Amino acid sequence: MCGTFLHKGGIVMECVAYLRVSTEKQAEEGNGLDSQKRDIENYCRKNQLIISDWYEDDGFTGSNMNRPALQRLINDCSKKKLKCVVAFKLDRLSRSMVDGIYLIERVFIPNGVDFRCVHDSVSYDSPMEQAYTQMMAVFAQLDKNTMLLRMRGGMLERVKQGYWMGGGNTPYCYRYSKEDGILVPIPERKEMALRAMNLYISGYSDVRIQKLIGFKSEFVTRQVLTSPVNIGMIPYKGKLYKGRHEPIFDIKVFELAQELRKTRKQSKSFCVNHENQLLTGLCYCGVCGCKMRYQKWTHGKHKIYCYSRDNGMSYLPNYNPNCSNSLEWAEDIEKQVEDEILKISLNLSSHKPKERESCLDILSKQLQKEKTKLKRLYALYAEGNDTVLEMIKETESGIDELKLKIQNEMKSPDNSQKKEFVYDNIKKLADVWEHIDKQNKNRILKTIISKIIIVNGNIEIQLKKF
User: Fold this and answer.
1) Which residues pair with 451 in a beta bridge?
2) In the chain, what is the straight-line distance between the N-terminal and C-terminal CA atoms, in Å?
3) 228-231 long-range contacts, CB within 8 A, separation 24+
4) Catalytic residues, which ones?
5) In this predicted model, what pLDDT tens digit does every residue of 195-249 receive, in sequence order?
6) pLDDT of residue 257
7) CA trace torsion 59, 62, 64, 68 (10° rounding)
8) Do residues 123 and 133 lie in contact, with contact meaning Cβ atoms separated by under 8 Å?
9) How many CB atoms lie within 10 A of CB 178?
């Protein structure tokens, strides 16, 4: 408990001291705990104060009040155990204007605590002094915000130069080198990532890859396969910057994997039969559009039927309880698919899917139309029609936007690698088909077939682009 008593030098009051430092850099700049303690002790000697306790927050930010020593100080003030608190500066107590004024007006003053600062004048004795103290709190927050702005600006420049941001959130396949400021691949994890990428492109799911490779979770597996860090990029504030670190994956392989990921729909349907069949995940009903599934039938055989026949699947898109599609023996449908796909493998050119108009083609056509429209408007304006001036400005602005979109589209990676991958898989199909098991056949089919449409026993195979 703080109090006052007589001393040979006069009346002396007991006090407590509050210290805070958040970083090693502050200590190097002269604001360390030792420096604060020295100045507080000198101040107390000159002002007849004796320090009875020290409240120290070492390594805590001043932007909030989540600090153990500060909370102990507030608790002791509320119990009226203290009479005087001394701090190095007001920003040591808090860098938040709201928190600083709250502590003075809602903690110290109501509990009769005299708050003093060695290097700042803090007083509520008059309106002018009160205003000055509040301005000091404002400047403490301004200093904090300015410091944050500098840090963010410095971080952006660092990232632009290809250096890693530092900190504890290091990507799975790397360790952070403080000396060089870059990420360094961990050899064994790099090897795991490369194996995982090969499996994913071969048709394995994230869950299956996790179990085979030994990643901690499906989330880690997905992060490894999708993070741009693994192709030498650094994501920062929603943008990507070229990093100085060694990439894990070849960029073309990475882009192919991302394209394949887009085409693989995560089915939320649950099937009683968990055995991986030849056409699992590929069959669609040609009558209602729902997915079709395998159903175990008599003597261990299977039939393929539409999900619309299952009352428990009413939440699925295209569900139609009146679907008239027939149940078909799985082996009959599989035989048709095998025969057809092997024919395609032997004669690729006649089965090549028709290319749809690309986004670039559509934008180019739109640009040509707008240019033609602009020429007509110019002609009208030349004839003295001033009413078209606003339309000319709008059309010119639209043309500029279209040109920008075309430039961005031209920069975006095409799917040539993906098409080449599909083409190679179809081409080699006839050579390997008889030598691989049903599970691997299903994986290959998923890389080359978009859908198999089934209508009353008849099939239509829709291939992916190649």
Assistant:
1) 462
2) 83
3) 229/171, 229/173, 229/174, 229/183, 230/171, 230/173, 230/193, 230/254
4) 22
5) 999 988 887 888 889 999 999 899 999 999 999 999 999 998 888 999 999 999 9
6) 86
7) 40
8) yes
9) 8
One-letter amino acid at 234 equals I
Q: Give pTM, 2 decimals.
A: 0.41
| Bridging pattern class, strands 4-7 and 283-285 | unpaired
The β-bridge relationship of strands 84-87 and 182-185 is: unpaired
- pLDDT tens digits, 413-429: 544 455 555 556 666 67
Interatomic CA distance for residues 42 and 60, integer angstroms: 25
Q: Report how far apart, in Å, the C-alpha atoms of 269 and of each of 178, 292, 317, 325 are.
A: 48, 11, 11, 19
- Residue by residue, DSSP assigns 347-384 as --GGGPPPPPPPHHHHHHHHHHHHHHHHHHHHHHHHTT
Name the β-bridge partners of 283. 452
- Where do we find the tokens 């850099």? 25
Domains (range + CATH), the chain: 4-147 (3.40.50.1390), 174-263 (3.90.1750.20), 283-354+417-463 (no CATH)
